[in-house]
């Protein structure tokens, strides 16, 4: 995972992988089949471990969940050791089989599905305005996260990432405050 994350799928050689794992090529083939299957395993491990570090879906409101995820990514993405996001890097793989591309798309769809489910839960629970397009809001924050990952990969720091996260959060749809019922004639205000 570390080698793929640092170098990307296409630039990572079998020699890079076997050196990182301390094994020989026949052992790599015996364990994983080929570079594509190893990459898919690495991408699955990345998704399980990196997103598990931020259990954003547990937040009490959808806005708080988005805030927590963006804050986590603003701190994690600019890592000197691993800038950016392995999953965003997988979007531009050109030298892979259709099977690998389909498997990676399925993995990205699962991540997107969890995010969308949290937005939809917010709509049901009333902390996201009724009528909000959950798919569009999911796509918007997906684009923000992808952009943050690419900026981090290009060298943007935490301060820049936090500013971007704050701006993106400011665009989260606000819930209109509920107005108190109007008092009718003859009703007195409670003290």
Describe the structure.
Helices cover 62% and strands 0% of the residues. The protein has a single domain, classed as Tetracycline Repressor, domain 2, CATH 1.10.357.10. It has 191 residues and is mainly alpha-helical. It has nine helices and no strands. The protein has helices at 2-7, 14-21, 25-32, 35-50, 62-76, 86-89, 98-125, 134-153, 158-170. Helix 5 (62-76) runs parallel beside helix 8 (134-153). The chain is elongated, with a radius of gyration of 22 Å.
Briefly note the structural class of the backbone.
mainly alpha
> What is the count of DSSP helices, taking H or I runs of 4+ residues?
9
Task: State the CATH architecture.
Answer: Orthogonal Bundle
Radius of gyration of CA atoms, rounded to a whole number = 22 Å
Range of helix content: 55-70%
Helix/strand order: HHHHHHHHH
How much strand? under 5%
State the separation between the terminal residues, measured CA to CA.
Answer: 64 Å
Low-pLDDT residue spans:
none
- DSSP strand count: 0
The profile of the biggest β sheet is: none
Classify the fold: give the CATH topology.
Answer: Tetracycline Repressor, domain 2
Mean pLDDT, all residues: 86
CATH class identity:
Mainly Alpha
Descriptive keywords:
191 residues; mainly alpha; Tetracycline Repressor, domain 2
Give me a quick take on this structure.
The protein is mainly alpha-helical. It contains 9 helices and no strands. The termini are far apart.
Per-chain topology:
Elements: H1 2-7, H2 14-21, H3 25-32, H4 35-50, H5 62-76, H6 86-89, H7 98-125, H8 134-153, H9 158-170
Helix pairs in contact: 4-7, 5-8, 5-9, 7-8, 8-9
């Amino acid at each position: 995972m570390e080698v793929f994350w640092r170098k990307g799928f296409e630039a990572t050689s079998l020699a890079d992988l076997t050196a990182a794992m301390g094994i020989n090529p026949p052992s790599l083939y015996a364990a994983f089949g080929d570079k594509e299957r190893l990459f898919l395993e690495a991408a699955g491990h990345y998704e399980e471990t990196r997103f598990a570090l931020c259990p954003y879906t547990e937040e009490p409101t959808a806005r708080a969940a988005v805030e927590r995820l963006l804050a986590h990514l603003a701190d994690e993405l600019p890592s000197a050791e691993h800038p950016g996001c392995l999953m965003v890097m997988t979007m531009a793989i050109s030298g892979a089989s259709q099977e690998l591309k389909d498997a990676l798309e399925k993995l990205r769809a699962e991540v997107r599905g969890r995010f969308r489910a949290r937005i939809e839960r917010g709509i049901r629970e009333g902390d996201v305005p009724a009528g909000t397009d959950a798919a569009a809001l999911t796509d918007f924050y997906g684009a923000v996260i992808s952009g943050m990952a690419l900026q981090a990969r290009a060298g943007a720091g935490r301060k820049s990432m936090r500013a971007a996260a704050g701006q993106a959060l400011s665009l989260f749809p606000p819930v209109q405050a509920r107005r108190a019922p109007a008092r009718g004639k003859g009703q007195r205000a409670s003290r």
